[in-house]
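Question (not urgent): is this output format expected?
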Amino acid sequence: MSSKPEQKETHQANGAVLPIVPVDRLTSPDRGQLVEPSDFLGPDGDGVEVVVLESRANAKGVREEDALLENGSQSNESDDTSTDRGPEPASPLKETSFSIGLQVLFPFLLAGFGTVAAGMVLDIVQHWDVFKYVTEVFILVPALLGLKGNLEMTLASRLSTAANIGQMDTPKELWKMITGNMALIQVQATVVGFLASIAAVVFGWIPDGHFSIDHAVLLCASSVATAFIASLVLGMIMIGVIIGSRKMGINPDNVATPIAASLGDLITLALLSGISWGLYKELESKAYVNPLVCAFFIALLPIWIIIAKKNAATREVLYSGWEPVIIAMAISSVGGLILDRTVSDPNFAGMAVFTPVINGVGGNLVAVQASRISTYLHMSGMPGENSETAPRKCPSPCSTFFSSDVNSRSARVLFLLVVPGHLVFLYTISSMQGGHTTLTLIFIVFYMTAALLQVLILLYIADWMVHWMWGRDLDPDNFSIPYLTALGDLIGTGLLALSFHVLWLIGDRDSDVGD
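Got this back:
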């Protein structure tokens, strides 16, 4: 049987050769009229079975296999993608190390300067009365700053994946994703803020054996109000960043999570300081204000729950997404306990300004890596599928950092950003005379060692955790980032406190502590 010019491929089925016709060729060149049925008649005038292949394209006309990054300048490979897939999915991330670093660099620096600003704010407010007399507020700091990992970074990762696989291409889909996810993070923020205040009260009460009901209500009101307002503002910023990234042809995975953190730490810490200071002022004359603030935000919970339940994508997270955010909050609170015990010690001068920086940078980098790995896995199917790409055993460090795949390449790029990034941030802090401390060579060496070790551990854990969760039928976008950023807070605070302690033992800090 002769084939027509447009029939470029044939399909063998039941011994018969069948023409394969793309669906977009069923219309005439002007797309105004269907092709005549006679075009599909055999030589004897009999009908011929036709196999129609649907062209899978998003709203921009880009196939889903290439939807993640369609910039031709980032790859010398052909744009043709084979439709015959083997067990190993074709890599959708056509990025070089240079392109990854170029896209990550600006958001990384922006996020880093946000953490520097947060550190400077904490260095100032630590001397306020509310931080002096209600020291449990320090325990709230890592837990609430960690909300960007629990909620905003998870939201950014979730929306980045949805955008990359074409689930936000139409206005209806976009609006549905926005309303459902915004309602979801308000529910999570209110609950996590309330639980964080309970953890702060418990961690503050256990060492001292002292409990004040007024201080407990103050912590609850400050935590819930801060979490709610910060999540509302940052959630709106995240949605704008992801939509803008897609329109500019930038991979949202590379920019969304760092930008979530760039303003996240600063906004959250400023809100916590201002709200707790205001409520502390009202504690004596208007004691009823704190309980009213708690009751107001908790009373809004049913509204956000109803909205979130209407969206199928957020309904699942609403029911099953509590374990990671609650456990992550508890982990961050342990880091807050370390901060609470060291920030007032003269031997640890500078801890307040450097803690948000080292924690923020580590959390930002590992969130980018986790989001990228998750998107890579989503391009090959759904969680639990394609077990070949999701090994459950711990990967070797060599496969995490030195293999040829794109995720290993991005891990190397992110790790190499640590030293130059922290040098810039340390110089900025020093030029602004923050931390009541002078930067010496031995301090920089110890600080960089702690920062490199923190990021090295986090990137390795991310490689294992994302694949392990995928193999366990858990969506890494919802489960991995809260754990990773919380571990970043704990590891960063612990290593920084250890570095300060060693420096004090060898006498380096004695001459550097200011007034």
